[in-house]
Amino acid sequence: MKKNELARDDYISQTIGANITFHRIVWDAQQQPTTVTAGGGIRYHSLPTGPAELHSHEFAELFLILSGKINHIVNGEIQQLGAGGLVFIRPSDVHGFETCDSPSNEPCELVILSFQLETMLLLSEYLGNDTFLRNYTGPVTAPRFKLSIRETEELSAELMQLWALQSQHHEMAKLKIKIFLANILTSYFLGTRLDCDHSAPEWLPKLCQKMQRMENFSGGMTAMKKLAPCTQEHLCKVFRKHIGKSPTEYINDIRMKQAAKMIIETDDKIFSVAMDVGCNSLSRFYMLFKKYYRVSPAQYRSIAQNNHIPV
Description:
With about 300 residues, this protein is an alpha+beta fold. Helix content is about 45%, strand content about 20%. A hairpin with a 2-residue loop joins β3 and β4.
């Protein structure tokens, strides 16, 4: 099958040396491939349910599946990925995405960090050791990992913060993305990554999935307590142990991510967005939003509308 090669200068900011984008993929058997840009590195894709359109890169990338399921075709093999799937793509890899054999054909959301290969070479030179680089390039297929709920939440939050920073403070974004890459590459390819915690109760992933719905997270702890099959005290202990935050902090994470999405994709007033995600206090909403994204909601909207970084 013919493949395309994605040019580095078309996909990576020359100033930062990297680029972070968020993608939502839906499937339509009757439609040609289309992509709609919502601004700020947000992309909506509608793909046919046929064979994947394969491509390679002049750069490296990693991607994290945030929700849904997808088949990742890479170097002739199929990787079935769901939420928490983390994959590292090398420039030599040829890959693309296909729908899973699922009646629902549910959408898939993922975040991609594209970066210059030189970053890895400089890191290897700085460490005076190329073990992580050999472990990264050695496997025939693209290295992949399955993250726990807690790891997925933490990694997606960190990428979201870097994404917001890259549009406003180029030099700081350049520095922090290099630090992020140094941490994640050495963690995953020098054997220092801790194993995922598989002891979480079966109801926890289901509860987290239900809390992603607006009618639930907007209801806050009241809604979560109704959905959880345990007492509030036990609920707090489980969240602290397996997700690393309290139920309230987890709900606020979801609220702020949804608020950021609504601020970019709609013209709704900030007050309306705050009410929709369940924040009845506008001052608290502003405080939480600035804590997550380091800018006010209005500044965040302005950044997204004026972001010209290529994707």
